[in-house]
Structure formats: structure tokens, C-alpha cells
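User: Hey, quick favor. My workstation is busy. Could you predict this chain's structure for me?
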Amino acid sequence: MLPIIALLGRPNVGKSSLFNRLVRQNKSITHDLPGVTRDRIYGEVFEEGVRFAVIDTGGMLPDSEDGGMDRSVFDQATDALDEADVVLFVVDGREGMTGLDQAVSEKIRSSGKPVLLVVNKVDGPEQEAKATVDFHALGFEMTTVSAAHGYGLNSFRERIAELAKPFVTPEPADGPELGLKLCMLGRPNAGKSSLVNTLVGQNRQIVSDVAGTTRDSVDVGFELEGRRYTFVDTAGVRRRTSITDHLEKLSVYRALSSSKRADVTILVLDAMEGLSHQDKRLIAYLAEQRTPFMVAVNKVDLVHKDRMDELREAYGEALRICSYVPVLYISALTGAGTNKILPLAEEIRRECVIRIGTGALNRAMSEATTKHQPPVIKRRRAKFYYLTQADEDPPMFVFFVNDADLVPDAYGKYLENQLRKLLKIKKAPLAAVFRSSHEKKEAERPLNNRQPRLGKSRREMDAANVDKPARAAKPGKSSSSGKASANSKRSAGAKTAASRKKG
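Assistant: No problem, here it is.
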């Protein structure tokens, strides 16, 4: 178990910016608008030979009313405080200490955890005295940094590593395992966060009837029966024309990027609202990107039994472009069907990383092409030479043929389906690529059976020979004498040509 460092403080003091600096990536959304971060966001840091986890939290408002969003954010930050080994109490050096800072400090002090007071937004040593004068009264160990400009960050990282070192426990020889990474994707208010809480068995994510509660891509790790999993809960993806806020655009970009990096994506759809145009676009996007995914139709407990057949038919029609994708009908509220999600994700992952030998591939190709030969196109038929696996995760197979243009799309789809059947790849995306084994030759000219055309002089000579009768030989002259005179004429002509060449 890694030591846990939690970043706590009131809203808009720069906790997310410091978090990104520590993990050295833009993992948490930063914005001038207060209250952007709501859920707990986890990251991992390796500094000075010490590996530890960092938690970014939302701004704490201790006086928030029960049932509101601010109270949910405060409860999430409180859970991070209980989970942490070391607390980084972040304050704003430009504004000085406020009443909210004092209220948060009391909450942190009551935990009894080691605390490092981080005075942020101090851009240089000349500002340290003025920025820290109010915070000495809190009695915490203090340091000054600037998350925006990088001032004091090197010493800040070293000090955090020193604070985390006493809480380090020996790790296995193979290092920490993140396990299977699952991304939750879908429209706003489809029940993604509720499903994560149900699978994890904790209220790790804020759940609200208000659409757009989740704004960032949040990693939630847990362990089940000795197997580790990491859920990535993402913001709801609306239609592009409906997005006017820059913050929401960034959230949607993070959500789609998370689906590309995950091992398996779980597309959560709302059964009550039916299959929308945006749902179809998300399905098409995942299929085009060759993303391993399953469809989880949520809130089926609210659907009448008479409508279930109609619902299944609608989703089956929408998934015709990727008929291999499995569909689960679940309820995050009651837990119905949720026990099938993790085993199904494991099965999809196994098919994605499959590696098949060339011998088995060529036997499968031979069986498929023998069962149904490629069609004849322009009096030519594609000839298949061999098949190989070019890539995995997800698998890609390359057919080498004499001419790739002779393989129509319909026959390529047939071969893809045959590969799924013969190689037992039923739920993972699969790509079949056709490549010409050599440069295509020029198309052969059709045979011409007509008689060759003759020159003009030859035609005239033939016509003259046909019209005129053959001349008879003159008396007194034999054929041998004619031949001799012809030979003499040819020899004379040859001597003349030789003399001209010599001259």
C-alpha cells in the first residue's frame, strides 16, 4: 500500500495546479472558476526514491448545507482526509488568511495527521514575508510555492518525499499493479458514477440527479478476489452543438481521451430515455476507433416488462455496425446484472491480447477461402497467399493477396466473420487488412483476332497481281538463265554499295 498525500483547502487556492505539478501531467482540470474539482482524483508520484499516491480534492466549505453539491464535495474531501497519511493544507498567499481557511484548518487539525501548510501563488522570495505573515498563527510547518510559475517546487517535492517515507511499506518484487483499467463513458446523468459506487461498494463518486455532476476523469481503484481494477469515471458527453462552456468542452475531451487509454470501455446508456442520436454517435465513434467496449443499459428496473423486447430490438439494430459488442441490461440502483460486468471485461481483455501463430492463421484462411471463393472482378479473381497477425490489443490480421483491389468490402466482411468464428474472437474488435504482395501489373490487353493491316504499296501490289494474268517466259530463255541474271544484278548492286561505303 502506497503512502497517501491529500491536498486540502478552500475553493480556488490552486490545489489542482499543484496536483498536476506533482504527478507531472495535466490529470486534473484547472480553471479560474471555483469549484471545478468535485470528486477525489488520484495520482502517483515517484520522488527521491519514494513512491506515494496523491489525492486532489474539491474546495472545502464546512458550513455548506446538507443535501447540496457543496456538502457532497465537502464529504468527499473529508473522506480523503480520513484516508490520507499526510495532509497538504493549501492556502492562497495573495489573498491572505480568510475565515474559510481557519475553518478548514480546524477540521484538518482534529484529524491528528502530519500537516504541511503550502502557501501557493508566491512567485518569488521577495514576496514570501508578505504572503506568509498571516499564516504563522496556524502553527503548522510552512512552505511557499507557485504552482503557476514553478517557484519552490523542487524543495517542495523533496519535503513531501521526506514526509511520506515513514509510511512506505515494502512492495512486491513485480511492483504495484494497476490491474484492469475500465472507462465509464456515456451521456450526462446516465448513471456512470452510481455504477462505479455499486461495483466498488463505496460512495467514491458524487451522485446527483443534476446532469453534469462529474466534471473530470476520476480514477477509482479497488481490489476484488485478489484482482485489481481501476475505474475511470468520466464527465457526460453531450452533442457538440449543445456544448457552449469551455469547461464542458475540456471535460468531454478528457472523457473521450480516457476511453482510448482504457483497457475496456463501458458505454452506459439510459434505458428510460431510449436510444438517442448521441448514443448512436458514441457507438459509431468507439467502433471506428476500434475501442474494446461493452454496452451497459442502465435503469432497467424502471422499464416495464412489456417494453423490454422493444428495447432489446432497438439496441440490437443500433449495434449492427459492431455486432460483436456485448450488451448488458443492468440497474446500478438495485445491483441487478452488475455482477456480470467485471467477468465480461476480463473476457474482452483476454481476446484483445490474443496472439495466434502463423500456421493456425493460414489454416483458417484456407478453410474460409475454400468454403466461399472470392468473386471474379473484371475477369480476375483475388489469389490469397498467406495471413499474418500484424498487431494485438486489439488484434489486426493482414491478408497478402495478388491484388487488394480484387477483394470487395462484402467479401472482406465475410473473412472477418470467419476469422472470429475460427479463431474464437467473439467480443473484441478485430481488423482485417488486405495488402498486395507485389506491385500490380498493368492490365493485359484483350486479344485482337483481326487480320493484320497491310501497307499501301503491298495492297496495290496484291491487287495488281490478282487483276493481271501471270506472264509467260520468253522463248529461248530458260528459268536458269533468269536466275543467273538476277544473281548477277544482285552482286553488282552489292559491289556498288561496298564502293560507296569505302569512298
